[in-house]
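hiii, so i know i said id send this last week but things got crazy w the move. better late than never?? heres the sequnce for the chain we talked about at the cafe, plus the structure i predicted for it. fair warning i was half asleep when i ran it
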Amino acid sequence: MNIRLLMTPIPLDKADVEEKTVVVIDVLRATTSICAALMAGAKGVIATPGPGEAGDMRAKLGGDGVVLAGERNGVRIENFHLGNSPSEFTDETVGGMHVIMTTTNGTLALNRANKGKHVITAGLVNMSRVVEAVAREKEDLLLVCSGREGHFSIEDTICGGMLIHRLTERFGDELQLNDAASLALLLYRTNQDNFHEAIARGEHARFLASIGFEQDIAIATRVDSMPVLPVLRDGRLVNEVE
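okay and structure toks below
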């Protein structure tokens, strides 16, 4: 299995994703919030690149049964029902609903990666489900870290490194890693006993804490706390049931 990791989605193009399993990572916070929405009983999550596209999708689907969720600069978009904090996605807010989501980083990465043969979203909160799915497929794997506004983020890279670490425990030398994947693996192994602290010290976590979202960091770093597998089906992310 060849594993390629991109530390940001900037270099991603169509040729990168064709015939591959693509895993999109945005620990703080989109892929964590997608898991939270599906855990809470949302019918699906539709990722859009911007607020305008989100509004257009809502009009297409009809207002009933649809929730708009998203942020810019970390805070809820004006006139949207929800922001991007995983704690906002509850049975009461999204149960039985379609969630249309747009975020600064994660949904942009998803829209760049959505032509993959299999597209999955991953965070620390659903790590084991993602590992099981990837191990079953045994296909070439592309890990896309959403980063922060086009730049490296420690939390997404550590998450990718954890995924690679768990795959090496299963497949060993069968895995062929690009240099970025090897670096992510080293970053995780160096911090595996204190990755929560490493993430909390990162730029993005410090920014979220400064605007009042410190709780989101704690939620996003609870490994396997949301055992769902968001997979892209017909333009929406749904929970693939085992």
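btw Residues 2-232 form a domain with the putative 2-phosphosulfolactate phosphatase fold (CATH 3.90.1560.10). thought thatd interest u
miss u guys!!
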